[in-house]
Amino acid sequence: MLEALRSAGRWLCRRAENLAVAMLAVMFTAFIVQVLFRYVLNWPVGWASELTIVMWLWLVLWGAAFVVREEEEIRFDIVWSSAGRRARRVMAILSAVAILFLYGWSLPAVWDYVTFMKVQSTSYLDIRYDLLFSIYILFAVATLGRYAWLLVRAIRYRAANAAGGDGTP
């Protein structure tokens, strides 16, 4: 059963990466179309610029939520590397609690804002802003899940490196 869950998790991770690649391809294609139309044909197209921005927004938040692994996150490595196991554990617990508090506290306001934005749409592609910004809700929920797991690992396993360590006490 556990191996089936791991297999399903790996499959979902690959699909998240595939979707990120597709968004990057759409963004790049829209950018090339925009350059071609503006500088070769002297015919600016707003929809290509808008699509590039939308894909960039979704790519960054999708990637941060579902593609980037914890050990690939940006950290203060100088401080982390110079600290001992106990200090690393304390830093992992404090940072996880802070992020869980801040994201959890902001989530209702984020939800209200995103759902309120259904009254406006983008200029060229006519995408409702609530649909456009819904990726932030996915990002926030995924971040809450990730840091809840990191908090459990730091408390339970007393890992030297709670963000990707080997889990040894």
What does this molecule look like?
With 169 residues, the protein is mainly α. The chain has 2 domains: 1-68; 75-169. Helices cover 76% and strands 0% of the residues. The chain is built from 5 helices and no strands. It is elongated, with a radius of gyration of 20 Å.
**Beta-strand residue percentage:** under 5%
Total domain units: 2
Broad structural category: mainly alpha
Low-confidence stretches: 159-169
Listing every helix as H and every strand as E from the N terminus to the C terminus, the arrangement reads HHHHH
- The helix tally amounts to 5
Question: How are the elements arranged and paired?
Answer:
Layout: H1 2-40, H2 46-67, H3 77-82, H4 85-116, H5 129-157
Main attributes of the structure:
169 residues; mainly alpha; 5 helices
Summed up:
By secondary structure, the protein is mostly helical.
